[in-house]
Amino acid sequence: MDPDVILAFENVTKHFPGVVALKDVSFQIRRGEIHGICGENGAGKSTLMKILSGVYPYGTYEGRVLYENEELQLRQSSIREATEKGIAIVYQELALVPTMTVGENIFLGHEPVEHGVINWNRLYADAQAVLKKYGLDVDPHAIVSNLGVGKMQMVEIAKALSENARVLILDEPTSALSEAEVQKLMEILRTLKQHGITCIYISHRLEEFFRITDRITVLRDGQVVATRPVNELTQEDLVRLMVGREMKERFPKREARPGEVVFEVRDLVAVDPDRPERKVIDGVSFDVRRGEIVGIAGLMGSGRTELVMTLFGEYARVVQGAIRLNGRAIYPRSARQAINAGLSLVPEDRKGMGLVLIQSVLKNISLPNLSQFVNGAFRINADAELKACMQQARSLNVKAPALDVAVETLSGGNQQKVVISKWLLSKPSVLIMDEPTRGIDVGAKFEIYKLMNMLAEQGVAIIMISSDLEEILGMSDRVVVLCRGRSMATLPVSEATMERIMALATGITLTAN
Amino acid sequence: MASSTPSAAKGIKTELLNLIRRNLQTYTILIAMVAIWILFSITTGGLYLAPQNISNLFRQMSVTAFLATGMVLVIVTGGIDLSVGKLAGFVSVVAAYLQAKVWYHIFPDQPFLAAALSVLIGVLVGTLSGSIQGYIIAYLGIPAFIVTLGGMWLFNGLILLVTQGKTIAANQPVFSEIAQGYLPIGWGWGLCVVFIVFLFWNMFRSRANKRKYGFELRPLYIDLLTSGFSALMVFIYVLSVNRYRGVQNPVFLLAIVAMVMMYISNNTRFGRYAYAIGGNREAARLSGINIRDVIFKIFVLMGTLSGVAGIVLASYVGYGTIAAGQGYELDAIAACILGGTSTLGGIGTIPGALIGSLIIASLSTGLQMMNVAPAWQYVLKAIVLILAVLIDVYFKKSR
Questions:
Q1: Which of the residues A7, A23, A511, B27 could staple to A29 if both were Cys, CB 3.0 to 4.6 A apart?
Q2: Which of A349, A359, A404 would you mutate first to test chain B, the one with the most B CBs within 10 A?
């Protein structure tokens, strides 16, 4: 094998129940290069990195991964093993202990020990040495929680390097950084390259690939589309490679008959309640009509979920702009107020936020709607509750042995139907659905789509967030594109193409050709 | 054909085994209790199950049980209340103080009015204390563990202040009836009949409802066995205590409180919300539940129940002492855990907590009767608690 190749994927395939996450992936990473990996959300980038780090150990995927000409055989739950072999990941969500010092974090898990006790002087001296060698400007005695995001990332890089990493994987390293910090990161990466360290660089911001990487591999639907030197590509090429595919008959047809405007958001600006200087939503405007499905597209970190949580009164503090429902201004400050106003939210994280998994289907559906069944002051009318929930579950075709089984025993698709049932029972005028088909199989997806169409025909205004561009184009009447907390444009679906959406979402302008 | 018979037999056998295993899990705690009773009855030469002892056993359980019925909801929401023992103790010395030092000077010959006022003030003190702690926990966001640990110390201090380190008598005629009195024999039987009729009526009504909505029904004989077992226990209890002096007032009071608490936890929004918060706080929040409000109310309710427990304690012991309520909070927590309440929140029942309380009382009484040294009593209680939870965890895993 080519001695220049440090890491090679050979026909790697990874199945999940109902989904193929990676299909026959083959490409090589050369020693000392900065190799970019790009693709849409869900193209398979994260799965690939999880195979490299041992989250999905050897044997759970097909094909081979060659590292230094030897097959990489990471055992069950041994992320440490990958690190010991020299493959380290700098995580998207920073994985540091915020209450500890920089030095402690760098050596967490492999502290210099003498006679069973930690040699603190050596620890800090070594930490200082690592930081200095790679030009990382951080004080090893500083407490991590006092550092900015950029410096925290440097600590993570130092942590990986202190364990003699030869391959460093950076997963969305710039998503939380300011431009100055990005600049600094690029410098650090160049230093690393001079020291012979190979980097795998994953990002949604296309322009960064052109600033730093040597070669780029594009993934789409779990397959490698191309691996090319960066100087042979343009941003437009990259976008086309990422999305270029045909639309299949995956979406049920619906005749759109949108009525009057029901829900309206104007120039919304909202800040993080804990850090008021940080704008989470920075100028969002759109409206939704009766019987219309409006898709919200945007890359990870563009503020999609933050936006809908804010509309639902549960996240950021609105400092500017207006939210109008049926012509009336509303300012929900809690989920209760939002529900009472006529909003419903099917949250992104079904298990973490949508359901009480240990409770029955019945109790989950009725939870936000119990007030409907209370007669007198206290008593829940069990008969009325059962009847309403049963009707709702039936009309959505929830497949469960009975209403009194725990929702944790149901399949993902049926769990999602329970969440939707729960939110339809309150008869909302606006239904917000955040990633309504994430993690459910194709058949169940189609059912959810039919359901959305049926609701739209009944006059519900639907706001759908999705990372799946095909889903956005297949289901929406209009598409709102978000980029860094701002609505870039609202496109009628007839004028929306994947390329246009991707261009707006990444903040680049396409040249006409 | 020859080969089908053993496999059919095997099928029935596995089904039976599964049934036993499932029910063993559900009733582990009941079986444990019966085992404890049988064991003690052997070691004490039958004395353990004598009417007088059964009577004592249930009365002893009642104070812990009042606390445990409230503690279930606290733990279900993912909280803890370490102050309930000392709060009950504080209420008991306040009641004793009022009985012995206050009412006598204001209206010397009105024992009924005096007792009523003591009860009222005692319960109010409990409720108010619960409200203050609940406010700090729910609205100021201080963890329940810390607030109620502080509460425990505070009430301990208040007990010393009220008693001045001395024991106060609370054995006035009407007041002592509350926990030391008995229902007339006829009442006992009447209540027993009413309860058993209600039990079966409820069972059949719930089966009819389940059938109406197509829910999976448990085999009838299992429901009959369960209800029959409960009915039998109540019958034996009434038979037994009626052979002594009748159903004790505090046990009757406990039965009423337990039914109210069961009703609240099953049939009201408040109860449902408590379980939802414990099951998944985020999902509950996004479902529009006012989490602070529910948590606050739970601590208010816990305070009220501590007040009731304190009154029963004072009346039962006949004194307000500096050690009043010592360690009761841990008994109550242990009772909940024994009764199947999950420390992770979201799971737990009132009947479970009652049986848990009964087991703790059964152990204490039995070991006392056997003259086991207090040191060993603690050791044995520790083993039972941990073993019971271990068995429970084992059955949940193997399911």
A1: A7
A2: A359
